[in-house]
Design goal:
Elements: E1 4-8, H1 17-28, E2 34-37, E3 44-45, E4 48-52, H2 61-71, H3 73-85, H4 91-113, E5 118-121, H5 126-138, E6 142-145, H6 148-152, H7 160-166, E7 170-172, H8 175-183, E8 191-193, E9 215-220, H9 229-241, E10 246-251, H10 257-266, E11 273-277, H11 281-289, E12 293-296, H12 312-318, E13 322-326, E14 342-344, H13 349-361, H14 367-380, H15 383-398
Parallel strand pairs: 1-2, 1-5, 2-4, 5-6, 6-7, 7-8, 9-10, 9-12, 10-11, 12-13, 13-14
Antiparallel strand pairs: 3-4
């Protein structure tokens, strides 16, 4: 099998559970890429070595920049011209771009000796910057992942147009993001829509309400603007005002925590809404099984950032929760509208309250929808299928 390297920003990262699921599934089918972590991370993961980039090697750029500028002067000029002509989206992207370039410049000579057939940047930012630069320096083809965060936030990565142009293929996980990539002029056959997969299938004993005295609502996600938690609190407020009994538990940490807690208290929801902070995957799975409804109120943030298909929606589907999701971006791609879930506008809270009241009054009528959600999660988000699709796409490029 061809020798392939996967580049990550930081590996393993606790929040990126789908990344680890995919690697386990790839290993089961005999596809074992070498793993490179550019920024921090661990030296080993589940018995597998990780090539963790020692940042101190960036000091050797004083040698490698003149070396590669002499060896590849045209490439240096083209990349620097592109960076000069296009403003950097933000400081974080500036740091990621130059760290990715620094990794490539210092590691290119050694990586060439390893005779890789392809480099794959798991994210479109720092990892693919490294893969793209290595492609130009040592002529090894590269592929890339590009998800909603990578292409929508502040107009996309600084070098995104060059990466799209030169990548062998682009893997994304939602149709909304695939369409956005094609709007950049990327040929459709170059874009591979490969869903993120699940590997664990919880068993719900029954579909009765967990508490006969109230609805158990759950939401999971970082406390950031694009998750639309202010809309969720307004939905909760209207449920309280209309005497629909409920408890809403919100899992996740983030910069908006204090702001959201203050808003919860202002609305008089402290007895109804709980912020649980970040929890382990095991504890979160238990919450899915002990909740009746999963809420996702994602919106498009001011900087353009949004979710594709949030991993939490298929996870909640697999646990038999009733899915009530935002109609924005790619969230509603996870299910079939009115068949295995519901898609509503989070800016119109009365629609949400009306649906949740109906569910409270006649929960048994929603059982078929919840059961179809479980089955749909198994059909559409099986990590074995994901792994096969990724390996097929990579092997196909390596054989060209």
């Amino acid at each position: 099998m061809s020798k392939v390297a996967f580049f990550y920003a930081t590996f393993p990262r606790p929040t990126e559970t789908f990344v680890r699921r995919e690697l386990r599934a790839l290993e089961k089918i005999g596809f074992q890429p070498d793993l490179y972590s550019i920024w921090k991370g661990f030296n080993q993961w589940e018995g597998k070595n990780i090539h963790r980039f020692p940042l101190i090697k960036l000091w050797t750029l004083f040698f490698w920049i003149p070396y590669w500028a002499w060896k590849k002067p045209l490439i240096f000029r083209n990349i620097l011209s592109h960076l000069w002509e296009k403003p950097c989206p933000n400081l974080q992207n500036w740091n990621e771009t130059f760290l990715g370039l620094g990794f490539a410049l210092t590691e290119a000579y050694g990586l060439r000796k390893k005779q890789y057939s392809l480099f794959h940047g798991v994210w479109a930012t720092m990892p693919t910057t490294a893969a793209f630069a290595l492609n130009k320096l040592i002529d090894v083809p590269f592929s890339m992942g590009a998800h909603a965060y990578d292409v929508f936030r502040t107009g996309g990565d600084w070098l995104l147009t060059l990466k799209f142009e030169h990548a062998s293929f682009i893997r994304t996980s939602s149709l909304s993001t695939a369409r956005r990539i094609e709007e950049w002029g990327v040929p459709a056959d170059k874009v591979k829509l490969i869903r993120r997969g699940l590997s664990f299938w919880p068993v719900r004993e029954n579909f009765d309400l967990k508490d006969t005295g109230r609805l158990e609502l759950l939401s999971v996600g970082r406390l950031v603007e694009k998750k639309g938690y202010h809309h969720q609190l307004e939905i909760a407020n209207q449920m309280k005002n209309e005497s629909v009994p409920f408890r809403l538990r919100i899992v996740g940490g983030g910069p908006m925590k204090n702001e959201l807690i203050k808003e919860r208290n202002r609305l008089g929801l402290s007895d109804y809404v709980e912020f649980l902070g970040s929890l382990s995957q095991k504890d979160t799975r238990e919450l899915y099984l002990n909740s009746d409804v999963f809420l996702f109120t994602g919106v498009i943030a001011k900087n353009g950032d949004r979710d594709g298909i949030p991993n939490v929606i298929p996870e909640a589907m697999s646990a038999g929760c009733l899915i009530v999701s935002s109609c924005f971006a790619g969230a509603s791609e996870a299910f079939i509208e009115d068949v295995s879930g519901f898609s509503l506008n989070p800016c119109q809270p009365r629609e949400w309250v009306h649906l949740l009241r109906d569910f409270w009054l006649n929960s048994k009528s929603f059982v078929p929808i919840r059961k179809r959600a479980v089955q749909h999660s198994k059909d559409a988000f099986n990590v074995k299928r994901t792994a096969n699709s990724i390996s097929e796409a990579i092997i196909s490029e390596c054989l060209k």
